[in-house]
Amino acid sequence: MSTALSQRPQLKHLTAALDELRQKGTYFRLRVLEDVQAPVCTYDGRKVINLASNNYLGLCDHPKLREAAIEATRKYGVGSGAVRTIAGTMKVHMELEEKIARFKNVEACVVFQSGFTANAGTVSSILGKEDFIISDELNHASIIDGARLSRAKIKVFRHRDVDHAEELLQEVAHEPGRKLIITDGVFSMDGDIGPVDKLCDLAEKYGAIMMVDDAHASGVLGRNGRGSVDHFHCHGRVDVQVGTLSKAIGALGGYVCGSRDLIDYLYHRARPFLFSTSHPPAVAATCIAAFDLLESEPERMERLWDNTRYFKAELGRIGFDIGGKTTPASETPITPIIIGDGKKTMEFSRALFDAGVMATGIAFPTVPEGKARIRTIMTSEHTRQHLDQALETLEKTARRLGILS
Ligand SMILES: *Cc1c(COP(=O)(O)O)cnc(C)c1O
What we know:
By secondary structure, this protein is an alpha/beta fold. The chain is built from 15 helices and 13 strands. It has helices at about 5, 10-25, 65-75, 90-105, 115-125, 140-150, 160-170, 195-205, 230, 260-270, 270-275, 280-295, 300-320, 340-355, 385-400, and strands at about 40-45, 45-50, 110, 130-135, 155, 180-185, 210-215, 240-245, 255-260, 335-340, 355-360, 360, 370-375. The strands form 3 sheets. A 7-stranded mixed sheet has the order 3-9-8-7-6-4-5, with helices on both faces. Helix 8 links the parallel strand 6 (about 180-185) and strand 7 (about 210-215). Bound molecules: pyridoxal-5'-phosphate. Pyridoxal-5'-phosphate binds near residues 115, 140, 142, 215 and 244. Pyridoxal-5'-phosphate (PLP) binds next to helix 5.
């Protein structure tokens, strides 16, 4: 019966939209991982060097995390059975929240099912339609969705442009609504760092709420991966800190850190918290073990940054545009290779894959038209040999396709 639905006219507009993507050359299929998320792994039957994951510290398959997940499953089963506010708050959920709060040096923490729901659920519940959101133009989609759901008025400032943010704040300074300044700690497509310290100054000058989304900074920036607030020494100046458990932490989830009342309020009002079931105990236990590792194995972060410096320097030496000319300069393990044309970028990504390197092509609408790129991400677990082999493949393939002359 599965073919019958495709004969119906109801969703024909979706087929047309997909045909348009095919024509533009930006249609994609999902690549399927057949083994473990690791520096070398198998997608679609091909062994590749993986430059595409957010597994910054190699925790996705860390033996201690596997053990924690198995142990929690044995003890507590596979599901929590309810949303947190009804009957689905397990001891292990509370332990994780307390652990993160201590790690981040804040009063309290709430864990959501994902970083996406943490952002969307928080922004939408702490503001209303009389309020204003002052938001960086490259902020993550989950912030934008949360902002829309809040029905607050959204004022977008040019990327990392603190003066522009101030202009926007001045425009609404006499309006009665609350103001929220929000930035990503690390921007996911360019790898540059948000001006958290300067935005904190602005927030204090104008009495605005300060919020940072540290999805790509968690486990990557700051002491033992405490994030951008720690990196900029802004403790006590950021009202709402969002982080993810899905990237460097290696499992799944998102969290919000802040005052006891912020967290209590989110327990009562954040819709993904209220209306969606909590994590399986294995996920919470895994994350607890991961935060232990951030403190007991700091050498992972050192290796991550060593690899980052080496890989960036080599990409630049080969002659790739790795940002800093027409796009922001990366300062983190995310390094874009700017190609420009979307179709060419997707062709490059496919050719790299065939040659044994997994690096995602990213085009409009995820990045601006004409700024399509291959995004590379380092992890602590890539060896020098992996990196040299990837660099050689990148260079050879780029020359063959006329991307490098
Ligand atoms: C990945 C990401 C998120 C979403 O986090 P998940 O835990 O994967 O849902 C939110 N914000 C930014 C900036 C991200 O890069």
